[in-house]
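Narrative of activities, Objective 1.

The group set out to show that a structural description can be obtained from nothing but a protein's sequence at a throughput compatible with the screening campaign. Below is one input-output pair from the validation batch, recorded exactly as produced.
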Amino acid sequence: MRISQLFAVATYVTSVLSCAKHNNHYSLKHKKRHIDPRAEPGKTDWAYEASYNWGRINPDYHLCQDGTQQSPIPIALKQGLSLEHLIKEWNYPDEVTGNFFNWGYGPAFTVQNEDQIWTQNPSFSFDNETVYLKGWHIHAPADHTVERHRSRAELHLVHVNAQGKERAVLAIRLDPGNKANSFFGQLPKMIGFNETDVSEEATLNHRLLLESVDYFDEFWTYEGSLTSPPCTEGIRFFIARPILFTSVQQMRAILGASTYSAREEQLVWRHRINVYLTCITNCPQESKTIMLNYTDSKYAGDERQPHVSMEKVDAHSPPETCQLMTQSGIAKAKLPWADLIVKSFFGGIFISLGPLFDLVVAGGAPGLRESNPSLITLLAAFTFPIGFVLVILTNVELVRSNMTVMMYTTLQRKTSVYDLLKNWVVCYIFNLAGCLFFTVIINWWFNFTRGIGCNWLVGLAVYLATSSKDNLSKIVGIWIPIWAFVALGYQHSVANFFLVPIGMFYGTNFGVGKFTYQSNIPVTLGNIVGGAVMAGAFLWFLYGRDDTLATKTGQPLSGERKSRGRHVANSSGSEGETVTTENHGRSRRDDSMV
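Output recorded for this entry:
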């Protein structure tokens, strides 16, 4: 026993140290630099892991919830590509001096401009206006997906107008390749994301960066927003078609200095993808958007270089895993009291399914227990994790997993001891309440309560299937809850329309009246409570309150039609129709970090 305890302690300490060490292995000469506190994860009232409720936690962030041009959005190849004629008059010198630092989420660079005369900075023109480079920063993983593929990172070159207001972003996706990239080869050693108070002066050749993506000769463009609170709109995004490939070592350095900073993707609405905005009607021929079919792109196929996997398995590296744990802990610490209580209560209910399933399997085979007790123990244990699977997939709170996450973020000083104790105590109490509530349901063998349990699990199956992006995941998401309700003996009113009448046909001793009164009515009412309250209202309370992409009247804006699967908006850039698909969720950052 003593040896096993020592081994467990050693394993835990090793995991903590391995997670933490990537924050501290950078050494260079720094000088102090003020960082906006909104760029520091531990000092904000929002987190990337909880971007769905940014608009609820602060009225200044209402655009995060109500905006119609929020970023990022999913990119689909069928949207076509814009060509380089939209971007012109590149004025990027060979050398640009500025400060290299970490903005709290990854590597960043700000052009030196003490007088804030922006017209002296590197620039380019689009839509008959000129914008000037303010700096750049890196998101990990990438903000934008193309055909659901998300790159390891994304670099944003942030540009302002002559008055210093953010106006345009050149976005470049980053992935590991088979050789080093010359732009990243000139960077100083990376600064860890915990070292936001330090920076180093550097002179960089940004032409090397633009040459790596052929000066945006093919790209997607749309009207978007900041990808973090306050989610200000009016930002023009240009996303390079080619991916910039780094060496594996360079990518490891970038990710080692980064923490999770990808906002959930937003629904496509008024983004006007690949539309030339300043010329709406009666445009001269050279002003219209020149569209290119993806199959005609010179980057179609393998994107010039093979993608090199950094790992032998498709999983996060230890530093990346710990970054995700950090963001999860910060999000848990910032949960409102009501959300924490409801999530903890349902966490107790979900986790109860595991031991109940275990009892059903173990108690249903007394002969096997006598003849082969090890086998029945193994079979029962196989069903036990179902509760934890539902806890993770529905993102509710469980005190035993929070013990690890909250302790890690508290040791990192990203959350306080008060945050840790609040989370542990509330989760413990309401996990207990959820388990006791579930105990009442399973021991009160009326058809009404069995109907509640049935449709509650059916509602969860609908949620899990909706959250899945491929058919196999949908099947598994549906299978687990339905498997559970059948094995636990819960009642499904529609299934009973077949099961009970077929029993009546074969000579059962009750009639239609007894079936209706004792089975159909109570089971139907229980199904309503389970599906509408235990599943529908539960999901609305946690994720759906004030979440609308409509006007104040609750109706979509005129001239557009919004749907979850497809959005069509008439755009007159070339007297055609812009069709955008693959719309999903939400996303964004700080005024100076787009």
